[in-house]
Amino acid sequence: MTGKFISFEGPDGAGKTSVLAAIVERLSSYYGDDLLLTREPGGRDNVVAEAIRDLVLSPDYPEMDPRTEALLYAASRREHIQKTIKPALVAGKLVISDRYVDSSIAYQGAGREIGFEAVLQVNQFAIEDFWPDKTIYLDIRPEVGLARINQYRTDEINRLDMDPLSFHQRVSAGYHRLAKMAPDRIVVIDAEQPLEQVIEDVWQVLSQELKVED
């Protein structure tokens, strides 16, 4: 595979959508049609993975068993890798994914308290040790992120947004643990800065990784 795989991570309210929109716009001038933006759970034009997304994020199932949730995410991820990410990389494209396996480890492993190792083991079966070249983690305190959601998000409130602050605090701690475990892959960006500065910090990391310049 000759392409590059970059993932974006962050707690709810970290501003991934806004940052990704700005970064993708800048990268489009370099990559054109060789740039693929996708997401998890699901995957653009990935029928099976998107169907699982609809199920796992639906607010209609607030009592879903945590291990069922973890397995559904892993299943969706497997489809995403096989049908979306790997074919694009084989074609030499830059793939940027809004979330990847770190989300499952942080949200289900830490947030749902299933355990890091248990969720990692399930996902290793799904990903077969297939990791991004670089992961951008947008770091924000849980209470700040949730306040942003309540103030600004009007399009989609999912099951995870309905969880208590303590859940999101565990998720944040899980992400911090992951960043310490994989410092060469995961780059931590302060997402509590003004949006323009967050975008610039992310761009500096990616421009070095991808060897592009303004």
TrEMBL record:
It catalyses: dTMP + ATP = dTDP + ADP. The keyword Secreted does not apply. Residues 8-201 form the Thymidylate kinase-like domain. Transmembrane segments: none annotated. Pfam families: Thymidylate_kin. InterPro entries: P-loop_NTPase, Thymidylate_kin-like_dom, Thymidylate_kin_CS, Thymidylate_kinase. ATP binds at residues 10-17. GO terms for biological process: dTDP biosynthetic process; dTTP biosynthetic process; dUDP biosynthetic process. Its EC number is 2.7.4.9. One of its GO terms (molecular function) is dTMP kinase activity. GO terms for cellular component: cytosol. The keyword rRNA processing does not apply. Keywords: ATP-binding, Kinase, Nucleotide biosynthesis, Nucleotide-binding, Transferase. It is an enzyme of class 2 (transferase). NCBIfam families: DTMP_kinase. Phosphorylation of dTMP to form dTDP in both de novo and salvage pathways of dTTP synthesis. PANTHER family: THYMIDYLATE KINASE, UMP-CMP KINASE 2, MITOCHONDRIAL. HAMAP family: Thymidylate_kinase (MF_00165). Belongs to the thymidylate kinase family. This is Thymidylate kinase. It comes from Weissella diestrammenae.
